[in-house]
């Protein structure tokens, strides 16, 4: 099943409740937590995630771009948070952290920066509910999609199919109605979009346009 998760990174933080209402037809909302250490940008932390969880009924997908998620990630497994994603590059023991997140009722997800290979994740694929393949360098919205990340998606989807496990594959960075079908054809099924949704006058219409872009075209060989 295709899922569209707008990222509020490009929303109007002063009118956030309004901007959340504008994406009511989405499948989830993606919250980018950045600490100005793991990535060179600073956004918000737990108090903001807690408040958003109070005002939206959309499942929340937290993307932690922070140092030491082994220490901090569990705090984000609160009511309303569907999945917590931590970066492989920042985590000491990804399997232990994923198990703890699951024990707290959150779906556990691991993210890979563009320069990070899939090998370690492939070895422990059953431990994760979702893998996030970054299609830009994490830190900022509005960057260009990296099609060279597609083999990672193909490899992950292939291994999940071999193992017979349900694995969500998320892509984040430069997703538009043009790039989404490329990622979908490579095996992605959860699509994060910031500027493609909130960089336009009508985020509801853009969310709908992304969903249409994800629908298999007649005659295509899409999954
Ligand atoms: O994690 C990140 C950026 O590091 C994202 O979730 C951005 O919000 C994506 O923005 P666009 O590339 O869609 O504008
Ligand atoms: Co993100």
From TrEMBL:
A divalent metal cation binds at residues 30, 32, 63, 172. PANTHER family: RIBULOSE-5-PHOSPHATE-3-EPIMERASE. InterPro entries: Aldolase_TIM, Ribul_P_3_epim, Ribul_P_3_epim-like, RibuloseP-bd_barrel. Pfam families: Ribul_P_3_epim. One of its GO terms (biological process) is pentose catabolic process. Catalyzes the reversible epimerization of D-ribulose 5-phosphate to D-xylulose 5-phosphate. One of its GO terms (molecular function) is D-ribulose-phosphate 3-epimerase activity. The gene is rpe. Its EC number is 5.1.3.1. Belongs to the ribulose-phosphate 3-epimerase family. SUPFAM superfamilies: Ribulose-phoshate binding barrel. This is Ribulose-phosphate 3-epimerase. Substrate binds at residues 7, 63, 139-142, 172-174, 194-195. Gene3D superfamilies: Aldolase class I (3.20.20.70). GO terms for cellular component: cytoplasm. Its cofactor is a divalent metal cation; Fe(2+); Mn(2+); Zn(2+). It catalyses: D-ribulose 5-phosphate = D-xylulose 5-phosphate. Binds 1 divalent metal cation per subunit. Keywords: Carbohydrate metabolism, Cobalt, Isomerase, Manganese, Metal-binding, Zinc. The active site is at residues 32, 172. Pathway: Carbohydrate degradation.
């Amino acid at each position: 099943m295709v899922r569209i998760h707008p990222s509020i990174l490009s929303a109007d933080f002063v009118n956030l409740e309004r901007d959340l209402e504008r994406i009511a037809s989405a499948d989830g909302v993606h919250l980018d937590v950045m600490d100005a250490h793991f990535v060179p940008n600073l956004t918000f932390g737990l108090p903001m995630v807690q408040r958003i969880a109070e005002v939206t009924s959309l499942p929340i997908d937290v993307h932690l771009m922070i140092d030491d998620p082994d220490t901090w990630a569990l705090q984000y497994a609160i009511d309303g948070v569907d999945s917590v994603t931590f970066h492989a590059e920042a985590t000491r023991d990804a399997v232990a952290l994923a198990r703890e997140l699951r024990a707290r009722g959150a779906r556990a997800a691991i993210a890979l920066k563009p320069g990070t290979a899939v090998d370690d994740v492939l070895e422990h694929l059953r431990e994760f509910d979702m893998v996030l393949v970054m299609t830009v360098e994490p830190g900022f919205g509005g960057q260009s999609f990296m099609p060279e990340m597609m083999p990672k998606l193909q490899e992950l989807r292939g291994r999940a199919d071999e193992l017979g496990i349900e694995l969500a594959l998320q892509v984040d960075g430069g997703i538009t109605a043009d790039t989404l079908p490329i990622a979908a054809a490579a095996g992605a099924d959860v699509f994060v979009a910031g500027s493609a949704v909130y960089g336009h006058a009508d985020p509801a219409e853009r969310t709908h346009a992304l969903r249409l872009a994800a629908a298999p075209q007649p005659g295509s060989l899409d999954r």
